[in-house]
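Is this the right way to post structure tokens for a design question? Let me know if I should format differently. Anyway, here goes:
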């Protein structure tokens, strides 16, 4: 007889054999014992958790000739035929290869016929989400009102791709990932029965690498057994491309401590050994997730699936880092995992990402800054602006400016002196408006000549301790818009010149009107004999006339 792989040999044959799906098995047992069997089921969940096996067990229980309560006997002709895949009343259909509307129409034709030997005619459609839209539509009517002797069982890994019209006609059962400890116990039972020599730590590695899939765990165990008759951690690390646990632990410590040199050395060592760097980053993400969980929950075993010793090690690692740092590191590594997965050169991408994580160690929390500013007790109230009654004295000559606690309260005489000093400085700035305006233009010209030229077209209207108001006439709206866009630049210069913040405000001025109409002036000028003689002699023409403002004199020096 040919060799049967462990995944097939140890496939569950009854509900009691199905591990890690206690909720589902309890529901099926109660439904069978009470006769509450529905006409359509949908089983969804990750790969290798028992969806198809449960469908076969349910089919056995429905057609078992000697069933007692809810479990199939496994010995009658119907149970044996279903186990061997030779039952004429149970049809297993692959949804990926039979996804056309013609295949569903053919199924509808066979549905009307009564079962040959059992009580029910059962259709198990695996990967049902692969059916086409037209195929699903063709199945709707039959699924809603099937013959009493028909039961549909659908299995899928992607329930979101199943139309809502199908979902609403099925009883949906969700299969979950199998707990790592449950997989380990089942593997231990299988290895003892099969007399497979495997160490406890290696068994732990297989259960972890299975990632919640019982079938994957059995496949990995089969592969490891073929590789070596005595399965150790070394063999599994070579087989699965996994780094040693000590190396990952050292890498975690170097990242948490911000040790860039140590981190790069470990990456080089892993690369030289031929380890898969994509697997390395995956391990790092998982470990940082575990550290974050330990930090937040103080080591919840249900969330971590670890032994007490392992949780203690994680606590020791997490004790030297804050939850804020762990959150930033976890986020950065998640992003890095995606980058490494699609990178042309995974090593350089991984090294660059781990260099970024080294900056986190140098960050200072806001709470720590408050403690530094406010003394040992920190600051319990939000910071508020100081008013005149809260002005602190300036540092005396030779004072280091360090804080040994809270700042001492100035005397009333010192407060009065400070207020007078500030008032004098502000008044001196405000009384000399033109001087401040000139200095502003000079400073701005050295920094941004174009902006200074635009500002010279403005007129100084008013200046207070808090506000500088300038105006543009109606014909210079473009310049006004440009000044508004650069308000922050001008305000920063004003602060440097005045010593305090002054807000810039722009206003529009009415356009000046001339006393005489331009056209009328042109006619008067053209009527002048001297102008007419000049035009005739020089063969010229009158282009423009500019009226003089009140008080303006003609410059006849040239």
């Amino acid at each position: 007889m040919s060799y049967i792989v462990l995944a097939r040999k140890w496939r569950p044959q009854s509900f009691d054999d199905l591990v890690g799906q206690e909720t589902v098995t309890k529901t099926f047992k109660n439904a069978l014992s009470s006769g509450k069997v529905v006409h359509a089921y949908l089983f969804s969940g990750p790969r290798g958790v028992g969806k198809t096996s449960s469908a076969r067990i349910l089919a056995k229980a429905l057609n078992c000739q000697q069933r007692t309560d809810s479990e199939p006997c496994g010995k009658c002709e119907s149970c044996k035929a279903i186990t061997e895949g030779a039952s004429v009343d149970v049809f297993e259909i692959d949804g990926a290869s039979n996804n056309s509307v013609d295949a569903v129409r053919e199924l509808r034709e066979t549905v009307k016929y009564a079962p040959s030997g059992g009580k029910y005619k059962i259709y198990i459609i695996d990967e049902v989400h692969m059916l086409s839209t037209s195929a699903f539509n063709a199945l709707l009517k039959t699924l809603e009102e099937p013959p009493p002797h028909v039961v549909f069982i659908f299995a899928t890994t992607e329930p979101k791709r199943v139309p809502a019209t199908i979902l609403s006609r099925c009883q949906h059962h969700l299969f979950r990932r199998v707990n790592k400890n449950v997989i380990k116990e089942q593997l231990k039972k299988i290895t003892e029965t099969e007399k497979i020599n495997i160490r406890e730590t290696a068994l732990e590695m297989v259960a972890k690498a299975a990632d919640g899939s019982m079938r994957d765990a059995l496949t990995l165990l089969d592969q490891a057994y073929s590789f070596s008759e005595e399965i150790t951690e070394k063999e599994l690390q070579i087989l699965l491309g996994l780094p040693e646990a000590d190396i990952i632990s050292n890498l975690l410590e170097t990242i948490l401590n911000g040790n860039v040199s140590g981190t790069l050395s470990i990456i080089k060592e892993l690369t030289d050994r031929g380890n898969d760097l994509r697997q390395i980053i995956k391990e790092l993400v998982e470990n940082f997730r575990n550290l974050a969980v330990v930090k937040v929950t103080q080591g919840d075993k249900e969330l971590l699936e670890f032994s007490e010793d392992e949780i203690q090690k994680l606590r020791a690692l997490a004790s030297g880092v804050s939850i804020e740092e762990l959150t930033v590191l976890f986020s950065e590594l998640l992003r890095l995992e995606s980058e490494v997965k699609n990178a042309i050169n995974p090593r350089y991408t991984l090294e660059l990402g781990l260099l970024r994580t080294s900056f986190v160690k140098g960050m200072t929390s806001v709470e720590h800054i408050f403690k530094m500013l406010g003394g040992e007790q920190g600051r319990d109230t939000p910071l508020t602006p100081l008013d005149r009654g809260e002005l602190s004295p300036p540092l005396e000559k030779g004072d280091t400016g360090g804080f040994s606690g809270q700042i001492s309260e100035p005397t009333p005489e010192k407060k009065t002196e400070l207020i007078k000093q500030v008032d004098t400085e502000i008044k001196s700035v405000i009384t000399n408006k033109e001087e401040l305006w000139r200095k502003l233009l000079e400073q701005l010209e050295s920094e941004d000549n174009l902006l200074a030229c635009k500002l010279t077209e403005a007129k100084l209207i008013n200046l207070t301790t808090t506000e500088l108001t300038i105006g543009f006439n109606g014909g210079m709206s473009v310049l006004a818009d440009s000044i508004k866009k650069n308000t922050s630049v001008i305000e920063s210069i004003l602060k440097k010149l005045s010593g305090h913040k002054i807000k810039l405000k722009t206003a529009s001025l009415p356009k000046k009107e001339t006393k005489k109409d331009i056209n009328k002036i042109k006619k008067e000028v053209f009527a002048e004999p001297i102008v007419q003689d000049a035009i005739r002699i020089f063969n010229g023409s009158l282009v423009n006339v500019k009226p003089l403002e009140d008080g303006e004199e003609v410059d006849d020096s040239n």
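Format looks fine. Someone answered above. Worth noting: The domain at 180-240 is CATH 1.10.8.60 (Helicase, Ruva Protein; domain 3). The radius of gyration is 42 Å.
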